[in-house]
Recover the amino acids of this structure.
């Protein structure tokens, strides 16, 4: 089953999303801040990362940059999750290296669609 | 009188006059007396002569016969002469000169003089003396000597006369003196007073004094005139004093007014400063408020959505669990919760959108996308909603509709809004999205129509449609849902993209909402940017006619903005909307400077305009400032532009450049020919301190243009330049006798080969290697050229 790393500092969001994704059959890794997120990405090499943009320690943009800068993890697709619906944030996310972008509140079907698309594009290294 | 009165002339006038009169009198008297005296004396002489005559003839009568008888007789009766007191001496000489007889009056000490021989004269000098020859009828008998004098009585009489005369003389003189002194007053007094008054008037400047005495005749006239003159002077002086006082007053008033003006000025300046400070503060406050608003909106966005996310999220989970567990009732309840939550979320989103729009914080994110994809996305999202009321959804979109350059997200939102509205107000009907591309002259328009067969709206409802918070009527929201903001937001979005939403509707039949947008949404970038730097005003502010500048640009707005800017900088402007118009206008009214936009699609393009301008003899020397969007600096300069500015143009830079181009070329300047702007900067900065004037050219061509305007004193030349390089330029320079004498210093980064050196050495003053010379080296080469030029000018 594809392994998804969820980097999200908000407990409720974390809970909701992970439960629903697990129900759909994904294996979830949890990171509560940017630093842990980057570390987990390096150590566990998930198949996809859902990165909240507003994180403590290192924010989502910085964490994305770091993941993409490391050749070992650069291949992992990252979907940015942001509560800010402003276009500048979207631009910023893409600029940081995110492969896609979704707004919160998460519309599960939409998000699932994006996850599936990216996993198709970047198949998990079995 | 300050002069010592030794000189008669310096005596007071009245003494002079007095003296004069006395002198005249004295003179007259003297003359009179002299005359009288002489007359008297003459009378006496005549008397004496008469007496003598008488006596003589008597004597002769008696002496003659006696001497005839006896020529040597000595008993002559001379003693008889004693009877006559006037005879003082007598003598008779014989014919041979012997004294025969004599008589001397007793008491005198007369002597008988010897005979005067050869006397034929009877009279001698002394009238009282007579020698008379005594003659007979035939021969001389002897000579008679007689001397007579005035008798004492006569003498007394004479001296009495004299004394009397003297007394009369003195008395007369005294009388004359007194009379003169008295009388002279009549004349001198007015004159003296006149003199005194004149003197005191002059000394004390008191023009109130008048000459009080009067006189008749010319003196009177003089006094009257003098007094009249003093009147005039006095009244003039008074008038002058008044005028002076008035002037003083005026001056004081002017000073006061000036002071007040200065005061007012200072106050004004202070107020302006205050106002400016306030404005700056207000602007800063506004900026901060704006920033606060942005951050508020962002925060609100986050703060409001987060709990809502939780509600929706967990409700969804619970619902899924319920469905999995087969608990339909719980699932339904949770559906209700979800609906309410989603509705709330919709409200929050709309409110945030409207807030952003009204705060001016809504931005466009433009991208190029396939229209068909957006439509299918939207339809996919809307299908469940549409299906709820038994409606069917159709897409009518030509397959070649192609791409669009716009804000995709907003377009999606707009379409969803329209679809949601359509499905709200339609039951068991059809909702169609119709997309079409309308080709246009300048650009295409995309039309997206949402057509429904719903309940429609009447005209009153239509009129309130796009207003925020107004739904068709108050009950709509409860019956149909919705926030009332959706259409307002959609309309704003359309307008932001330079499009619009229109609606037509027939109650009972349906409605058509049409979104019309440009296929290529362009957000206008300002062409001219103000950075708050000071604008450079015209270099000829005092001249009656301001420099005329022709603006050639196809964009109306840009022309307007630039024209405004130039007018503020004291220039006159004319505009041309196309290259053709520009060329025609320039040919007819030669402007002082042309601003040319080279990006003018349609008609003659900017480069052609530039070439034609340069090709026209009459216009070739008009400086052209080119506004370009891309990096066409070299091309522009090669074609003859005086200067190139990239868009967006900095207002301050534009005005500075114009002022520079319009200023006459400095007489003694240094021409720097260098394509690298940093290289130019370095050289200019090195030599700036010397106070020399500089002109720059980016290649040989541009340099030749500058040369045609005016000779520099020295040229600093780079070798490697695009367009005409240094060598070619030197060639051109050498061929023109007017330019061949201008000294050239090569400043190049190239490695100079011996062949190059051979070529260059005779043509140039010096060859400097970039980075290997210092300020003083360069200055030492340039200084003599400038000095020669300056000396030649003066």
């Amino acid at each position: 089953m594809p392994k998804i790393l969820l980097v999200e500092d908000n407990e409720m969001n974390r809970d909701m999303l992970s439960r629903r994704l697990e129900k759909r059959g994904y294996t979830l890794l949890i990171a509560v801040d940017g630093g842990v997120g980057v570390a987990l990405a390096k150590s566990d090499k998930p198949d996809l990362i859902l990165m909240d943009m507003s994180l403590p320690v290192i924010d989502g943009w910085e964490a994305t940059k770091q993941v993409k800068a490391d050749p070992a993890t650069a291949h992992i697709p990252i979907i940015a999750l942001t509560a800010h619906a402003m276009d500048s944030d979207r631009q910023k996310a893409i600029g940081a290296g995110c492969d896609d972008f979704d707004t919160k509140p998460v519309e599960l079907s939409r998000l699932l669609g994006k996850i599936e698309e990216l996993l198709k594009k970047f198949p998990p290294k079995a | 009188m300050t002069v010592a009165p030794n000189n008669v002339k310096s005596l007071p006038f009245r003494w002079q006059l007095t003296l004069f009169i006395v002198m005249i009198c004295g003179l007259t008297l003297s003359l009179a007396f002299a005359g009288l005296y002489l007359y008297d004396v003459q009378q006496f002489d005549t008397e004496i002569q008469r007496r003598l005559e008488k006596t003589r003839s008597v004597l002769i009568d008696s002496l003659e016969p006696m001497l005839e008888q006896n020529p040597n007789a000595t008993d002559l009766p001379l003693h008889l002469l004693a009877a006559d007191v006037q005879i003082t001496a007598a003598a008779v000489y014989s014919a041979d000169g012997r004294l025969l007889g004599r008589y001397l009056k007793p008491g005198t000490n007369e002597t008988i003089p010897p005979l005067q021989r050869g006397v034929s004269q009877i009279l001698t000098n002394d009238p009282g003396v007579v020698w008379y020859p005594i003659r007979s009828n035939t021969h001389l008998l002897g000579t008679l000597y007689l001397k007579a004098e005035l008798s004492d009585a006569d003498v007394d009489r004479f001296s009495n006369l004299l004394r009397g005369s003297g007394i009369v003389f003195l008395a007369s003189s005294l009388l004359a003196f007194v009379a003169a002194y008295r009388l002279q007053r009549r004349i001198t007094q007015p004159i003296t007073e006149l003199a005194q008054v004149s003197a005191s008037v002059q000394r004390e400047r008191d023009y109130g004094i008048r000459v009080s005495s009067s006189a008749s005749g010319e003196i009177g006239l003089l006094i009257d005139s003098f007094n009249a003159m003093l009147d005039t002077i006095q009244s003039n002086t008074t008038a002058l004093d008044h005028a002076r006082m008035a002037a003083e007053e005026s001056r004081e008033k002017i000073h006061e007014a000036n002071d007040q003006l200065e005061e007012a000025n200072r106050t004004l300046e202070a107020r302006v400063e205050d106002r400016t400070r306030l404005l700056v503060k207000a602007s800063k406050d506004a900026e901060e408020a704006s920033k606060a608003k942005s951050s508020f909106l962002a925060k609100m966005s986050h703060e409001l959505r987060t709990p809502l996310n939780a509600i929706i999220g967990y409700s969804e989970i619970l619902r899924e669990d319920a469905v999995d567990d087969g608990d339909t009732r719980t699932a339904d309840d949770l559906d209700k919760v979800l609906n309410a939550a989603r509705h709330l979320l919709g409200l929050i989103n709309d409110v945030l959108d409207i807030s952003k729009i009204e705060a001016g914080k809504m931005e466009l994110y433009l991208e190029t996308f396939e229209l068909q994809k957006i439509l299918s996305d939207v339809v996919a999202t809307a299908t469940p909603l549409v299906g709820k009321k038994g409606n069917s959804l159709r897409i009518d979109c030509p397959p070649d509709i192609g791409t669009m350059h716009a804000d995709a997200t907003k377009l999606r939102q707009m379409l969803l809004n329209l679809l949601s509205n359509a499905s709200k107000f339609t039951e068991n009907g059809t909702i169609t999205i119709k997309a079409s591309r309308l080709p246009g002259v300048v650009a295409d328009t995309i039309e997206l129509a949402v057509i429904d067969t719903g309940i429609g709206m009447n005209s009153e409802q239509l009129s309130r449609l796009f207003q925020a918070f107004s739904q068709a009527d108050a009950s709509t929201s409860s019956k149909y849902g919705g926030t009332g903001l959706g259409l307002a937001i959609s309309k704003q979005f359309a307008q932001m993209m330079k499009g619009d939403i229109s609606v037509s509707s027939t109650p009972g039949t349906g409605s058509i909402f049409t979104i019309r947008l440009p296929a290529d949404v362009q957000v206008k970038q300002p062409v001219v940017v103000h950075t708050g730097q000071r604008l450079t005003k015209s270099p000829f502010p005092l001249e009656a006619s301001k420099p005329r500048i022709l603006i050639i640009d196809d964009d109306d707005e840009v022309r307007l903005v630039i024209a405004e800017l130039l007018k503020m900088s004291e220039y006159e402007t004319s505009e041309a909307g196309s290259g053709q118009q520009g060329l025609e206008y320039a040919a007819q009214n030669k402007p002082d400077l042309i601003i040319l936009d080279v990006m003018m699609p349609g008609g003659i393009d900017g480069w052609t305009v530039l070439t034609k301008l340069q090709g026209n003899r009459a216009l070739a020397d008009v400086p052209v400032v080119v506004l370009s969007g891309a990096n066409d600096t070299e091309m522009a300069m090669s074609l003859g532009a005086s200067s190139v500015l990239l868009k967006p143009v900095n207002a301050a830079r534009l005005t500075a450049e114009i002022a520079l181009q319009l200023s006459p070329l400095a007489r003694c300047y240094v021409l720097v020919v260098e394509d690298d702007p940093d290289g130019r900067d370095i050289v200019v900065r090195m030599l700036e301190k010397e106070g020399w004037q500089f002109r720059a050219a980016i290649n040989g061509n541009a340099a030749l243009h500058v040369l045609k305007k005016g000779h520099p004193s020295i040229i600093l030349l780079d070798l490697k330049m695009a367009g005409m390089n240094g060598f070619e330029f030197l060639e051109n320079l050498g061929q023109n006798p007017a330019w061949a004498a201008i000294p050239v210093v090569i400043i190049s980064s190239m490695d100079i080969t011996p062949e190059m050196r051979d070529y260059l050495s005779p043509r140039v003053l010096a060859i400097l290697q970039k980075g290997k010379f210092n300020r003083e080296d360069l200055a030492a080469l340039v200084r003599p050229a400038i000095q020669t030029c300056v000396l030649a000018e003066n």
